[in-house]
Amino acid sequence: MTHLALANDRVLATFPKDFFFGVANAPAQVEDQLPDAWMDWAQEGKVPAFYNYDRPEDKIRFWSDPETEIKLAKQLGLKVFRLGVDWFRLFPTKETKTPSPDVIKRYREILKLIKKHDMKVMLTLFHHAEPSWTIEQKSWTKEMMISNFEIFAKSSVDHFGDLVDYWITFNEANIYILMTQIANAWPNHTEKKHPLRLFNLGPLKGTYERALKNMAKAHRQAYKYIKSKHPDIPVGIAHNVGNYVGENWMSRIFAKVSKRKFNYVFFDMIADSMDYIGINYYGAEVVKGTSVGISSSYEYSDSGRAVSPDGLKKVILELHDRYNKKKRGRRDANTVLPFIITENGVADDNGWLRSSYIVEHLLALRSVMNEGVKVLGYIAWSLSDNLEWSDGYCPKFGMVAVDRADQMKRIPRPGFYT
């Protein structure tokens, strides 16, 4: 059994022996020597966070020096290391037929290094990044993306599948489409915000759901291929969910609509093709009118996210009811889908919130497990400070700070040993 205890050895909760703890990162956020669409986006001045810091390429060198991160994870006694393979790095041009042997070799070296340090590999295929050439083809708004992704997915399975213990096909598909095709805040082919693309007009689906439908088809193809090659390896997604709450009757209506659109739509599309329910949870989304607002009812992180451990419990129970009790979209109604917390963390530069944040969310997990929900493990976001997409290096999610002026020196924050 694994015990969650305070410094005075008072045990707060006990987890099963096979319950795992881990950390996560993503290639576009941590890999150096990666001149991808995100670097182009930043260097074109489209990431406001870099107006006062003009070196977006200052990542934590996970490509050239992965051992520093992996040793830190091992030092914490973690059992799972979640990372990804970058689509652009494998297929940098539309004409690329097979990945570079050097790239394959390097990724295999990194995966083997994780194994060498007695951790399992959780590998993500799509984590908020795609090649520039697929963006030029209008990305997931076009059906051709399905066959493009299939080539990448099959190549990844063929080259790395023997080293993978858990697969994630898509990370936060809902957020990716929202931020690229709707908000125009991440690398995409559009030039203006298109908020109306989020909605449907009768039978006509807006860009949001049409793109998710293409991603769902790509997921099902990848799922089928992985299971044909490695039938015993679990496959799922990492899906961003929030505890949507409204503070008056109108806001509660929009909160309910938001919950369906962001928490359920993509899961509903792939419920027949996943071995676990992977969720990324960061907090409450307080709906005020038709937008997200600030409420005095919550404590907030450095990134402005409302801290809500009880919300994690609520969301898991709702998902459990939807996909296990009601068997929505499930072909095999006799199989219970377990949960994996694929991301959970807090932006907290001073380290004032992180320890209590992690402990309280683990207690929420223990609570739902006591109610009969199966949870396999908990992945923290993140080990070290990363490039946080359009927020640059501003939010500090890392349990370890990074001194970019001193050779990426790692400085553990309070809570590192939580």
Plain-language structure description:
With 418 residues, the protein is of the alpha/beta class. 36% of the residues lie in helices and 19% in strands. α10 (249-270) links the parallel β7 (235-246) and β8 (277-288). α7 (144-160) packs parallel to α9 (207-229). The longest helix is centred in the middle third of the chain and has 23 residues, at 207-229. The protein starts with a strand and ends in a 6-residue tail after the last strand.
Write a concise keyword list for the protein shown above:
single chain, eight-stranded parallel barrel, alpha/beta, 15 strands, 418 residues, two-stranded antiparallel sheet, 12 helices
Q: Poorly predicted ranges (pLDDT <50, ≥5 residues)?
A: none
- Number of continuous helical runs: 12
Backbone structural class: alpha/beta
What topology, given as strand order, has the largest sheet?
Answer: 3-4-5-6-7-8-12-13
Q: How would you characterize the largest beta sheet?
A: 8 strands, parallel, barrel
State the helicity in percent bands. 25-40%
What number is the mean pLDDT? 93
Give the strand tally: 15
Distance between the termini: 17 Å
Q: Taking Cα atoms only, what radius of gyration do you get, to the nearest Å? A: 20 Å
Output the helix-strand order: EEEHHHEHHEHHEHHEHEEEEHEHEEE
The portion of residues forming beta strands comes to 15-25%
* Shape by Cα distribution: globular
